[in-house]
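Severity: low
Component: inverse-folding endpoint
Summary: output formatting inconsistent between runs
Steps to reproduce: submit the following structure tokens with default settings.
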């Protein structure tokens, strides 16, 4: 399977691939992929068995696949120290807080 950038270069020789560095975030990239390249992005992720868990684009992905949007509200777990640590880890990972 060719990467998305390689497919673009094959079909459009003037296509320039973006460069990512230590100061590049993925939040904007996910939104861009969902807005402009949904079909190719989902096809590539499905082929590589990569699940997309970003809350910011999940409704758009569900709509594209003809699925009902996820509920905005999730059932709360009872408070415990373990649940608190799990929530912090999910926040850090989901919001790209790790530099």
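Observed output (run 2 of 3):
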């Amino acid at each position: 399977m060719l990467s998305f950038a390689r497919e673009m270069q094959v079909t459009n020789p003037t296509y320039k691939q973006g460069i990512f560095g230590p100061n590049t975030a993925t939040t904007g990239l996910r939104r861009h992929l969902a807005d402009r390249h949904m079909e190719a992005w989902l096809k590539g992720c499905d082929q590589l068995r990569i699940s997309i868990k970003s809350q910011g684009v999940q409704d758009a992905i569900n709509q594209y696949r003809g699925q009902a949007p996820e509920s905005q509200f999730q059932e709360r777990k009872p408070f415990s120290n373990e649940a608190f640590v799990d929530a912090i880890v999910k926040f850090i990972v989901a919001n790209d807080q790790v530099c």
